[in-house]
Amino acid sequence: MQNNTQNTSSGMSLIVKTVARILAGMIMLYGIYIVAHGHLTPGGGFAGGVIIAGSFILLYLAYGATAADSDKRKWYASLCESLGIFGFWIVAILGLVFGTYFLFNIFAKGTPFHLFSAGIIPVCNVAIGVEVAGALVGIFITFAAVKLLERK
Amino acid sequence: MIHYLLGILLFVIGLYGVLVKRNLFKIIIGLIIMEYATFLLFALVGFREHGTAPIQPGVAGKVFVDPLPQALVLTAIVIGLGTTALIAGLAVRIYEKYGTLDIRKIKKLKG
Amino acid sequence: MVNSIPLFVVIPLGCAFILPVIGRRWERAGDLFANLVTVTLLGLAIWSVRFIRETTVYHVGGWGAVNGIPIGIYLVRDGLSIFMLVVVNLIAFVATLYSINYMEYFTDKTKYYTLFMLMLAGMNGVILTGDFFNLYVFIEIAAIASYALVAFGTEAEELEAAFKYQVMGSVGSGFILLGIILLYSYTGTLNMADVGRVILDKGASNLVWFVNVLFIVGFGLKAAVVPFHMWLPDAHPSAPAPISAMLSGVLIESIGVYPLTRIMYNVIGFDGVLSNILIVLAIISMMIGGLLALWQWDYKRLLAYSSISQVGYILLGIGLGTPLGLLGALFHLFNHSAFKGLLFLDSGSIVYSVGTRDLREMGELDRRMPITSKTNLVAAMSIAGVPPFNGFWSKLIIIIACIQAGRYGVAGWAILGSILTFAYILKAERYAFYGKAGRDVADVKESPPFMCIALIILAVICVVAGLMLLPNVRETILFPVVNTLTSGTEYIWRVLR
Questions:
Q1: CA angle A82, A83, A84 (to 5 degrees)
Q2: Which chains touch B (3+ CB pairs under 8 A)?
Q3: B103: pLDDT strictly greater than 90
Q4: Residue of chain B nearest C230, judged by CA positions
Q5: Are A151 and A80 in contact (CB under 8 A)?
Q6: C180 vs A9, C202, C364, CA distance in Å?
Q7: CA of C450: how far to CAs of C12, C241, C443, C446, in Å?
Q8: HSE value, Cβ hemisphere, 13 Å, CA-based, for B94
C-alpha cells in the first residue's frame, strides 16, 4: 500500500489529502460524540472508538507513511490501548477499594438522560473508546506495514 | 423454529468452508461465517413479534424484544474481531514464511 | 472474605494491562511483576482452601438476584473451583519462575508476560464463573492468549501450528457458543444455577440433548479428546517450554475438562448415556494418544501425545461417575499438571542447553545435567505409575473404581494404557539421558538457577502429592471436592439459596 520512500510527497493525490484533512476532524468529533453519549443513545465506547480509529486510518491512507513513522505510531497506538484498558481496570477496582463489589457503580447516578449521569458508565465508555481506537489503529498499521517477501 | 434451522444451516456452511477449503483466507472466511451465524441466531432468539425497544418509558404491559442477547452479541462481536485480527495476522506471517496460501503446501509439521 | 474471589481475575488482568506501558523502558518489569502476581495468586488459592466445604457466591457489580432470579454475573467459589485454582496457580507460579531465565532466548519478554497474564486471568475466570456467557468470554480470553503464545517464536513451524490450533479452537468456541445460545432459548437465563433450575422444572427435552452433544464436541476440541485432537501434538510442542507446561498441564484441563464436568454434573445432570459417551471417548484417547506417542522421536511431541492419553484417564474417572472414580480423576488431574508440567520444563531445559528436541541427538545427559535428569526421572516414574510416586496412586484409584463399578473391560483398557505409558516414557528416558550421545555433549551445562528451582519445586510435589491420600488429609482436601460433583444438581440450590 505504501511505497515506503523518504519522498515527502508520498501518499495519494492533493484532492484526497485535502478532503481527508477536512473530514478527519469531523469524523473524530462524531466518534467522540458517540463515546460521550454512550449511556444515552445507541453506540458507546466500542462504536465510538471504531469511528475515532477510522479518522486516523483515513489520514494514514491519504498521507502514507515511512516504516519509521509506522513503528512510532504503532507504539503510540499500543500505548493508548494499554492506558485505556488500564483506566477501565482502575474504575472497575474502585468498587473493591471502597469496600463494595468489583465493577460496582460507586459514583452518584444523577438524573437519567443527562450527559453527566449513570455513575461509572460514561467513564468506562471513555476508557473503552480510547482502548478500541488505539487497538484498531494498531491492528491497521500492523497489517498496512507488512511487506510481503518476493517469491523465491 | 425456521430461524433456528436457518441459523444452524449458516453455521454448517461456515463449518463446511473451514473443513473443505484449501486456501488460508478462505478458511478464515469460513470461521467468520460460522461465528456470525451464531451471533445472528443469538440476536434472533431475543426477537419478539411486534416488540418495541425495551428502553422507552411507559412500555409496561407492551411486548418488547429481549435486550440481553443484543448486549451479549456486541460482546461476542468484539471477541470475534480480536480472533479474526489474530488469525489474519498469523496467515500473513505464514505467507511471508512459506510463500503460499495453499494449506496442502504448508506442512513442515508431520503427522 | 468474599472480596478475595474476584482478585483471581482482577490481579492478572491489571498486570497484563500495565506491563506494555512500563515494560518498554524497564526490561525486568515483566519478570518482577509476573512473579509477584503468580506468588500472590498461589498464596490466595492456598489460603482459600479453608473454605473448601462452603459455596460462596460473589455478585459482580453488586447485581444480586431480583425476586429470586439472578440478573448479574455470579462468581461461584466451591470445593471444585478452589481445587482447580490451586492447580492452575501452582503451575503458573512455577512457569513464571522458570521463564525468568528461559525466556532470555526470545526477544520480547514483556509481550510474553502480558499474554501469559491474560491467559492466567482467563483460566481463573473460567474456573470461578457461574454464568454461561461469562464462561464463553473467559474461555476466549484464555484461548486467544494461548494462540498468540504458541506462535510466539514466529518461526514457520510455530506459525503453522498456531494457525491450526486457532482454526480448531475457533470451531470449538463456535460449538460452545451455539450450545449456550440454544440453552438460553430454552431456559431464558444464562446463570448456570438458574439454567439448571429451569431444566429441572421443564424437564430435559431433545434440545438439551442436542446441547449436550454440542458441548461434548466444543469442550472436546478444547481438551483434545481423540477424534478432535489433531491440533494438540503440533501446538503444544511449538510453544516456549513454560507455555507448553501451562497448555498441557492446566489449559486443556481448565478450559476443556473442567467446564464440561461442571456443566454435566452440576447444571444439566449426569446420566448413563453421557457416562458411556465419556468412557468411550476416554478409552479411545488413552489408546490412540499412547500408541502415537510410542512412534515419536521429537521429545516434546511425545509428551504432547502423552497429554492426550493422560486426559483420557481423567475423562475415564469423570465418565464413571462414582465417587471413587471422581476422586481418581481429580487426583489424576492434579498429578498430571505436576508431572506433565515438570516433563515439559525438563524438555525446555534440554532445548536450552543442548539445542535440540530430537531424542536421537540427545544422550548421556544424566552426568551433564544432574538436576534436569533427576527431576525428569521423578516425573517419568510418576507418569509411568511407579509406586510411591503420585501417578501410581491416581491410576490405581481409577482402575479400582472401574472394577468397583463392574466395568472389567474398561479396567483392562486402563491397565493397557498404563503399560503403553510406561513404554513410551521409558523410551524417552533411555534415549535422552542414558543412551549413547548422538552428538558431542562435552560442553553441555546445567540450566541457570531459576530454572532448576522451578524443576525442584515440581519434583518435590510429584513425590509428596501421594500424601494427599492419607486418611486425615483426604477428608479435608479431596473429599469435599468430590462431594461438590457427586451432590450433582444440589449445586443449583447452593448458589441460588
A1: 90
A2: A, C
A3: no
A4: B111
A5: no
A6: 54, 17, 53
A7: 21, 14, 20, 11
A8: 26
Query: Which residues 33-72 of chain A have a CB within 8 Å of chain B?
Result: 46
**CA-wise closest residue to A93 among C311, C15, C231:** C15
CATH code of the domain covering residue B40: 1.10.287.3510
The H-assigned helical ranges of chain A are 14-36, 45-63, 67-97, 120-144
For the cut 90, the answer to whether the pLDDT of residue A111 exceeds it is no
Rounded to the nearest angstrom, the gap between the alpha carbon of residue A13 and the centroid of all alpha carbons in its chain is 26
A-to-C residue pairs, Cβ atoms closer than 8 angstroms: 45
Helix, strand, or coil here: C435?
coil
C170 and B79 within 8 Å at the Cβ level: the answer is: no
Give the pairing of strands C56-59 and C69-70. unpaired
The string over C313-345, giving b where at least 16 C-beta atoms fall within 10 Å of a residue's C-beta and e elsewhere, is bbbbbbbbbbebbbbbbbbbbbbbbbbbbbbbb
What is the phi/psi pair of residue A12, to 5°?
-95, -170
pLDDT value of residue A9: 54
C375 close to C469: Cβ distance less than 8 angstroms: no
Q: Is the dihedral of CA B44, B46, B47, B53 positive or negative?
A: negative
Q: Is residue C48 within 8 Å of C8, Cβ to Cβ?
A: no
In this predicted structure, what is the pLDDT of residue A1? Answer: 42
Per the structure, the complete domain to which residue A23 belongs is given by 14-144
Q: Do A146 and B96 touch (CB under 8 A)?
A: yes
Please check whether residue C62 touches A, CB under 8 A: yes
Do residues B72 and C133 lie in contact, with contact meaning Cβ atoms separated by under 8 Å? yes
Residue B31 belongs to some domain of the structure: yes
Amino acid, single-letter form, for residue C219: F
Q: Say if CB C32 and CB C110 are below 8 A apart.
A: no
CB C309, CB C285: distance < 8 Å: yes
Q: Any idea where the domains of chain C sit in the sequence? A: 2-496
- Report the half-sphere exposure of C201 (CA within 13 A, side-chain side): 10
Q: Which residues of chain C are modeled with pLDDT < 70?
A: 1-2, 438-442
Q: Report whether pLDDT(A2) > 70.
A: no
Domain-located, residue A8: no
CA distance C366 to C436: 11
Domain count, chain B: 1
Total domains in chain A come to 1
From the CB of residue B17, how many other CB atoms can be counted at a distance below 10 Å? 18
Residues of chain A positioned with their CB less than 8 A from the CB of B102: none
Q: Which residue has the cell 471477541?
A: B79
Which pLDDT tens digit goes with each residue over C265-303? 998 888 888 899 999 999 999 999 999 999 888 999 999
Domain that holds residue B42: 2-49+64-98
Task: Determine, for residues C24 and A93 on separate chains, whether the beta-carbon distance falls below 8 Å.
Answer: no
Q: What is the 3-state secondary structure (H, E, C) of C306-358?
A: HHHHHHHHHHHHHHHCCHHHHHHHHHHHHHHHHHHHHHHHHHHHHHHHHCCCE
In three state form, how does the secondary structure of B40-82 look?
Answer: HHHHHHCCCCCCECCCCCCCCCCCECCHHHHHHHHHHHHHHHH
- Cα separation, B109 vs C234, in Å, equals 7
Q: How confident is the model at residue B107, as a pLDDT?
A: 76
* Contacting residues of C for B34, CB less than 8 Å apart: 170-171, 174
Residue A109 binned pLDDT confidence (cut-offs 50, 70, 90): confident
Q: Which residues contact C106 (CB under 8 A, 6 or more apart)?
A: C112, C152, C153, C240
Q: Which amino acid is at B68?
A: L
Instruction: Please report where in the chains the cell 562435552 appears, as a residue.
Output: C442
- Residue C452 CA to residue C310 CA, distance in Å, equals 25
